[in-house]
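*Target chain*
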Amino acid sequence: MPDTPQDNPFQPPTATLQDAAAATTGEPLFRLAAVGIATFFGTPIAGAWVMVQNLKTLGRLDDVRKAWLMGLGFTIGMFVIGYFLPDNISGAPMAIATVVGMYQFAKQTTGAALQQHSASGGAFLSNWRAFAISLLFLLAVMAAVFVAAFVLAPGPTI
């Protein structure tokens, strides 16, 4: 008697299974390096935007909120620590920590899907695009900081 799927209940399924979140869509994605570039030049919010674009393309809409919260949290944390940091201490380690943190978060969240996309010959967007977008985010963040400093500044004393 031959072993057909109906005869042998212990035989594994012959259909190829594919995770819907990791499926390649044919649309270009940002590389992991783009998250680091955007975070370095345009604050973690820009890095989060790059991640969100990848997550939307991959159809992983449930992770979009986590990416935005991570970027916003890193940005607020960076400004709060920078405010209380003494003048004689460099802020460079803090900036490096935010870049590494966002990169690792992106690697953990989308790394496997990006590897699968690359292995299947998927296209990637230019890192220059991430750089340009990061400059726009930097401009917006600096404008917000300027407005906040202007509004919160004490008035003239008479």
Residues 32-141 form one domain. The two ends are 102 Å apart (CA to CA).
